[in-house]
Design a protein that fits this description.
The chain has 9 helices and 14 strands. By secondary structure, it is an alpha/beta fold. The chain has an 8-stranded mixed beta sheet with strand order 8-9-10-7-11-12-13-14, with helices on one face. A 6-stranded parallel beta sheet has the order 3-2-1-4-5-6, with helices on both faces. Helix 1 packs across helix 8, helix 4 runs parallel beside helix 5 and helix 7 packs across helix 9.
């Protein structure tokens, strides 16, 4: 591909829209040509902050443009499936933030559209790209480490409908279809295909209509197990914290950082071009487009995650 890959970020005013814009600024082969938000005022503000030449409202205004090769969707979960299909139908490459959809049927429908397209289609399963998890993955592929157990905590304090910036949300987040998706996919990526999955959840919030606490158990084809605890009720540091218990070591991963089981920090600065998982995710998207290949975290690669989530959702009915 000649020239830079021209990218539009939709949902640019949200917390993750801005994380993508931060990452794209570091990628020489990418050029953000347009940002889209829910209002012109918000779009203009983001465009000014990141020096993007065009600001529009909504996805349709992006898809009709001829200066866009690829679209990053950082929009509400309920829009992901339909918007991903729309981007592919417009002949543009697409990266959609996690989750691909909030149902198994929706996920498989989008996969069918992607497989019928010649465009790059990728889901933002960031844990595959964090340097901490890449370090562990490299040891696994080299035969130097095998996961025996993963113990994972995904904790937030979110008893009202707010986003990662503390702002009011127009949609409701979900522990299973969003936050559990990160760990379900990562566990399979590190330990093999998931062959057993169980879940229980706590009381349903009277206003939000979702479970605020959840516990998930997984087993992979290699015999490794994973215990995942999720909560929107936890007062304390928020985010997801991973403990890998293996045959040759124990690792603790906190986003892009990695520690030994004794909490000694491991230098992962040479694992990849950056220490920013979102930037690395976007680098993979741009590289796959330019090289004409399937990206890590393609729809085909992550669909089993959504099949596991679909089975867990049936257990929680």
């Amino acid at each position: 591909m000649n020239g830079r890959t021209r990218v539009a970020v939709v949902g640019a005013n949200g917390a993750f829209g801005m994380k993508h814009l931060d990452g794209l600024q570091q990628i020489e082969d990418a050029e953000v040509t347009v940002v889209s938000a829910t209002s012109q005022e918000k779009a203009d503000a983001v465009a000014a902050q990141y020096r993007v030449p065009n600001a529009v409202v909504g996805l349709d205004a992006v898809l009709e443009r001829d200066d866009v090769d690829a679209v990053i969707l950082a929009t509400p979960t309920g829009l992901h499936a339909a918007q991903t299909e729309a981007v592919l139908a417009a002949g543009k490459h697409v990266q959609v933030e996690i989750p691909l959809a909030d149902s198994l049927a929706g996920s498989e429908a989008v996969l069918a559209v992607a497989e019928a397209s010649d465009r790059v289609a990728m889901v933002g399963h960031t844990r595959r790209f964090n340097p901490s998890h890449q370090f562990v993955h490299q040891r696994i592929t080299a035969g130097e480490f095998a996961v025996q157990q993963m113990d994972v905590q995904t904790y937030f304090f979110r008893r009202n409908n707010t986003n990662a910036k503390g702002e009011a949300r127009s949609w409701t987040d979900h522990l299973l279809w969003h936050h559990a998706a990160h760990t379900v996919d990562l566990f399979a990526y590190q330990a093999g295909r998931i062959v057993q999955a169980n879940a229980v959840q706590g009381p349903i919030h009277p206003e939000l209509g979702i479970a605020m606490d959840m516990s998930i158990q997984l087993k992979s084809e290699t015999g490794a197990i994973c215990t995942l605890s999720l909560s929107f009720n936890n007062e304390g540091p928020f985010g997801t914290f991973f403990r890998y218990i293996g045959d040759t070591a124990t690792y603790i991963a906190r986003y892009d950082d990695l520690y030994t089981g004794r909490d000694e920090q491991i230098d992962v600065s040479k694992v990849a071009e950056s220490m920013n998982g979102i930037e690395l995710q976007d680098r993979e998207f741009i590289a796959a487009i330019r090289e004409g290949r399937e990206p890590n975290s393609s729809l085909r690669q992550v669909i089993d995650c959504y099949r596991v989530l679909g089975g867990l959702a049936e257990q929680l009915v």
